[in-house]
Write a structure and sequence with these properties.
Layout (H helix, E strand, L loop, with lengths): L11 E3 H22 L4 H4 L9 H6 L17 H6 L5 H20 L3 H18 L6 H13 L10 H16 L4 H4 L2 H6 L3 H7 L2 E3 L1 H21 L12 H8 L5 H9 L1 H24 L8 H18 L3 H11 L5 H7 L17 H22 L10 H6 L15 E11 L18 E3 H7 L7 E2 L1 H9 L13 H10 L11 H19 L7 E13 L11 E13 L1
Antiparallel strand pairs: 1-2, 3-4, 3-6, 4-5, 6-7
Helix pairs in contact: 1-5, 1-17, 5-6, 6-7, 7-12, 7-17, 12-15, 12-19, 13-14, 14-15, 15-16, 16-17
């Protein structure tokens, strides 16, 4: 029977776990690149800032940029080069190169170089348009940084295959050399006992410790913040209620369930806190080899994130967290799953990047990760003021609904006024006929800019003034659009001169161009784009109903852009 032995081995991981993590992380990044460009030219417009010349504008292939060239929180000279936006052609090139290095990373081709290049490229891509980013992007690039100092290509990679073939050729050349026949290949392939064979797969390094500790710090950084609030603590336990009723990223069925059974949210809040406190700790405290139980809690953590995905439209957060749990699968599980244990497995030299160089960088990253984590929680002074982490975009400021869940939320409606048939000019319409409107968010989401995305005036007025917008998250083209628009309406923006109104004006012009380009041949052009934002406050615990979930706050922010 398996006993729960506390033999902490956070510094030890199985090479096969790292290999599967590497492969699935590559697939995850490919999916992320696709989702970033899923709406074609309109999606690409978030990443460049070079204004098009007259010829390019007349050609109309690329849309105007959404962001101003100076609209970036990153002002250091290095970041201006690293996060340079430039032209749409340049960004297409960057996306292609990023996808190429991602494939090389996935197949394990020169892993050390491909992982460094992928980290540099993804870091630049995420920070060119910071309005589209959330914590999952930080988590992913932190884990990518640890991949640069870990032997992630030891097995199931092009590097491992190439090394094995090279050693096989060397063995055939020196077949008569008795000393060679007693060397490392023979020792590994004929190792005595299953445990000796399995040791060839165990990675024990500062880099592997950094990988596992980063996962733990992500959870405990978020949980620690929650202790300062009341919604996650007994006897309140109302956090899940407010998360589901907040509207941001929540699925309608989950919101309806929690509204109908508010006491259920208390149990789910407690269960979430217990899962995030115990499962990462158990994974770090469990042994990697022998009769390990590390995978049990890793699987429980995976199921926890699958349940969150079922309730919330945050694919990247949940699946990035699931991928990281794979690192905790211990040696014994892989030995039972694979038919041939340690067959043709060779020791991998610790000289990738130079053993001393890699050890230096992994030691520095580990020290700075712990130092920054403690500094973010004000346990110690941040003597660098966080500048090193900001420079590398490697920090430990994990929020995730802490210390309390915000009770305010945002709703957005972006519509285009349709020019009526027979109008003499763009601004004139029949005073007796209310203009139809194009629901632009729906048009982007469904890639249908025609009549199927149009709404009449009564529907528009209902959507503008409805007390309880249902399934708000489903109205946005993607969760990245929801994140960006929610971030824009904040009163504090950086840089300060790029106010929500100014940014919305630029976005409105881009949407004008996109809508009219998609409606070529249709005489009913879009003559005006209206961006409407309004803030709401979730009603008190247990009082939300289908008819009343929010109370409106302040006046609506209405920005009209003439096309």
């Amino acid at each position: 029977a398996m006993t729960l032995r506390l033999r902490p081995q956070p510094h030890r991981v199985d090479a096969r776990s790292l290999a599967v993590f590497r492969i699935l992380l590559s697939v995850y990044i490919l999916h992320d690149l696709y989702r970033r460009l899923e709406h074609g030219r309109l999606s690409l417009a978030w990443y460049y800032s070079e204004e098009q010349d007259a010829d390019a504008a007349a050609d109309g292939y690329f849309l105007p940029p959404i962001l101003d060239p100076l609209d970036s929180p990153h002002g250091s000279p290095v970041h201006k080069v690293w996060f340079y936006r430039g032209s749409p052609q340049f960004q297409i090139f960057i996306f292609v190169v990023t996808a190429l290095f991602d494939v090389l990373f996935g197949i394990g081709f020169h892993c050390q170089i491909s992982s460094i290049m992928l980290w540099l490229l993804m870091n630049g891509l995420q920070n060119r348009s910071p309005h589209l980013a959330d914590g999952s992007d930080l988590y992913m690039r932190n884990m990518l940084l640890w991949c640069t100092v870990c032997p992630i290509g030891r097995v199931w990679s092009y590097d491992a295959l190439s090394k094995r073939r090279g050693m096989a050729r060397a063995a055939s050349i020196h077949k008569k050399d008795d000393d060679y026949n007693q060397g490392s290949i023979s020792n590994i392939r004929n190792a005595k006992g299953r445990n000796d064979q399995s040791k060839a797969f165990i990675i024990e390094s500062i880099g592997s410790l950094g990988c596992t500790l980063q996962i733990g710090l992500m959870y405990y950084g978020a949980v620690y913040r929650r202790f300062a609030g009341r919604m996650w603590m007994w006897p309140d336990l109302t956090a899940v209620y407010y998360v589901m009723n907040n509207g941001f990223a929540s699925r309608q069925w989950a919101a309806d369930l929690i509204r109908g059974h508010p006491q259920l949210s208390r149990y789910t809040t407690g269960a979430a806190m217990i899962a995030e406190l115990t499962c990462p700790a158990a994974c770090l405290l469990a042994p990697c080899d022998g009769k390990s139980w590390r995978h049990i809690f890793a699987i429980l953590l995976m199921l926890f994130h699958l349940s969150l995905f079922a309730c919330m439209r945050l694919f990247n957060w949940q699946f990035m967290s699931i991928l990281c749990c794979i690192i905790f699968i211990p040696t014994g599980v892989w030995d039972r799953l694979t038919a041939e244990v340690s067959k043709n497995q060779e020791e991998t030299s610790n000289k990738i990047l130079g053993g001393k160089v890699r050890k230096f960088f992994s030691s520095f990253f580990l020290f700075y990760m712990v130092y920054n984590f403690c500094g973010e929680r004000q346990w110690i002074a941040k003597h660098d003021n966080g500048d090193i982490g900001e420079f590398l975009r490697f920090n430990q400021n994990w929020l995730m609904y802490g210390p309390d869940v915000s009770r305010t939320t945002m709703a957005a409606l972006i519509t285009g006024k349709v020019q009526q048939s027979g109008s003499q000019n763009d601004s004139s319409t029949d005073s007796n006929v209310e203009p139809r409107r194009l629901d632009i968010l729906r048009a982007i989401r469904n890639n249908d800019w025609g009549s199927n995305s149009e709404i009449d005036h009564s529907t528009y007025m209902f959507m503008r003034h409805e007390e309880t917008p249902n399934d708000m998250a489903a109205r946005f083209p993607s969760w990245r659009w929801e994140v960006s628009l929610k971030d824009w309406v904040k009163e504090r923006v950086k840089p300060k001169k790029h106010t929500p109104a100014r940014r919305s004006q630029r976005l409105g012009h881009v949407l004008c161009a996109a809508a009219n380009d998609a409606r070529k041949g249709n005489p009913e052009k879009i003559i005006q784009v209206e961006l409407a934002f309004w803030s709401m406050r979730t009603v008190d615990f247990g009082r939300a109903t289908t008819e009343h979930r929010f109370d409106r706050l302040r006046d609506d922010l209405i920005i009209e852009v003439e096309c």
